[in-house]
Amino acid sequence: MKSPKLYSILKGKCPVCLKGDVFKSSKAYRIREFDKMHENCSHCGHKYEIEQGFWYGAMYVSYALTVAISVFCFVVTYLLFPNAHSGVFIGVIAAALILMAPITYRASRMVWMNFFSKYNPKFGKHESVSGNH
Ligand SMILES: [Zn+2]
C-alpha cells in the first residue's frame, strides 16, 4: 500500500488504522444515511471528530472540491459543445454538483481528517482481538 492517506480517503476507512469504517453506510447514495458517521473507530478507538467544531474545517475542502468539479464540467462541456448557451454550462455544473454532493461531503471530511491524523502501523497490523466483525 503506497499511501495510507489515499487509501483512507478512497475507502472511507479510519486514518489511523485503516480498518474501521468512518461512515455508517458504505453507500454514499443512501440519502438518509450518507452523512451518518461513527464517533469512534471500531478497530482502534480513534475519535473521528478530534475536537468540537472540527468538521467546520472540512468546508474548505468541500469548497475546493466544488470548484474543481465546476471547472471540470465547464471544460468538458466546452470541448463537447463549444457553442453552447451559457445556461447549458450553468445547468451542467449545477446538476453535477447536486449529483456529486454526497461524494463531495464524504470526501471533504475524509481529506480533512487525514490532515490531522496519521497512519499508525501498530494499530493496522494486529487483528482485532474480540474478532466480532
Ligand atoms: Zn482506527
Q: What does this 3D model show about the protein?
A:
It contains four helices and no strands. The chain has one domain. The longest helix is centred in the last third of the chain and has 31 residues. By secondary structure, the chain is mainly α. The two termini are about 25 Å apart. The structure holds zinc ion (ZN). The site of zinc ion (ZN) has 10 residues, from loops.
How are the elements arranged and paired?
Blueprint: H1 4-11, H2 58-80, H3 86-116, H4 121-125
Bound molecules: zinc ion.
Q: Report the strand count.
A: 0
**What is the end-to-end distance?**
23 Å
Measured on Cα atoms, how large is the radius of gyration?
A: 18 Å
Portion of residues within helices: 40-55%
Which stretches of 5+ consecutive residues score pLDDT under 50?
128-133
Relative strand content: under 5%
Q: Helices and strands: which structural class?
A: mainly alpha
Tell me about the biggest sheet?
Answer: none
Which kinds of small molecule does this entry bind, naming each only once? Answer: zinc ion
Roughly what is the average pLDDT, rounded to an integer?
A: 92
Q: What is the global morphology?
A: elongated
What is the N-to-C order of secondary-structure elements (H for helix, E for strand)? HHHH
How many domains, in number, for the residues? 1
Number of helices: 4
What's the short version?
With 133 residues, the chain is mostly helical. The protein contains 4 helices and no strands.
